[in-house]
């Protein structure tokens, strides 16, 4: 009797059964399918994570760049604002008005020349307009007939200098002013005001090259005679008949 395992039908069945067992793990094994799906899912997840990371880094870089540019713009804006405030704090210059007093011409011209006349940002017409606004009285009448043009500006300046920048006239005016200073009152304020005027006019003469030795001997007696009587007595008591000089 043929054994069960040797039966032809049994062997044929086992053959087909063996073929099936050998092929199932390769083609239909459930763990193989799951492993493949998980592997594909892991790859997809990694790809998505990498893409998300790149996008995040790009956005962070853009934000950082915008922040840096904004900070730079704020610093520049802050610097400009600070500079503008600094310039706004500077005091405005007020030019002296010249009315024709020949003694005041040089101080007026020095201020006007440095502020307006030598300013390269102003045209001749603009300078002429400034000049007209700073003149009054006889000085304004001197250039009244000039139209507001570039050529007339230089002519107006030359005419003003010709009339008011004559040294001998200025020296004469200083001397007349010194001789005509009113006598001071016998008070501290009156005496101080008298001395301040004397020093101012004497310095004006020195700025023109006039030495005290040229006019001092003539001017000292006039100055002393205008002093109050009590002061003259004290001077005579202390100094007697000594010759006085202006620098004393």
Summed up, what is this model?
The protein is an all-alpha fold. It contains ten helices and no strands.
Q: Would you report the number of β strands?
A: 0
Could you tell me how far the N terminus lies from the C terminus, measured between alpha carbons in angstroms? 166 Å
Largest sheet properties: none
Q: Could you say which overall geometry the principal axes of the C-alpha atoms support?
A: elongated
What is the string of helix and strand elements?
A: HHHHHHHHHH
pLDDT average, as an integer?
A: 74
How many helix segments? Answer: 10
Strand percentage lies at under 5%
Kindly state the percentage of residues in helix: over 70%
Low-confidence stretches: 1-6, 12-38, 81-88
* Spatial extent as radius of gyration: 53 Å
Structural class of the secondary elements? mainly alpha
Number of domains: 3
């Amino acid at each position: 009797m043929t054994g069960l395992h040797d039966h032809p039908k049994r062997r044929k069945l086992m053959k087909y059964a063996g073929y099936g067992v050998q092929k199932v793990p390769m083609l239909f094994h459930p763990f193989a399918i799951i492993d493949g799906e998980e592997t594909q899912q892991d790859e997809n997840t990694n790809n998505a994570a990498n893409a998300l990371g790149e996008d995040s880094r790009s956005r962070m870089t853009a934000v950082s760049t915008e922040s840096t540019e904004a900070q730079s713009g704020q610093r520049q804006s802050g610097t400009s604002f600070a500079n503008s405030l600094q310039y706004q704090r500077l005091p405005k210059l007020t030019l002296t008005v010249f009315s024709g007093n020949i003694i005041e011409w040089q101080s007026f011209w020095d201020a006007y020349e440095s502020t307006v006349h030598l300013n390269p940002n102003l045209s001749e017409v603009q300078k002429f307009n400034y000049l007209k606004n700073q003149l009054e009285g006889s000085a304004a009448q001197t250039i009244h007939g000039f139209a507001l043009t570039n050529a007339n500006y230089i002519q107006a300046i030359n005419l003003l200098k010709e009339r008011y920048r004559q040294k001998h006239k200025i020296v004469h005016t200083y001397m007349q002013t010194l001789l005509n200073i009113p006598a001071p009152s016998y008070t501290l304020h009156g005496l101080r005001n008298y001395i301040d005027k004397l020093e101012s006019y004497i310095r004006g003469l020195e700025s023109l090259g006039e030495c005290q030795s040229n006019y001092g001997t003539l001017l000292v007696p006039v100055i002393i005679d205008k002093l109050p009587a009590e002061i003259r007595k004290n001077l005579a008591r202390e100094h007697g008949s000594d010759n006085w000089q202006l620098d004393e």
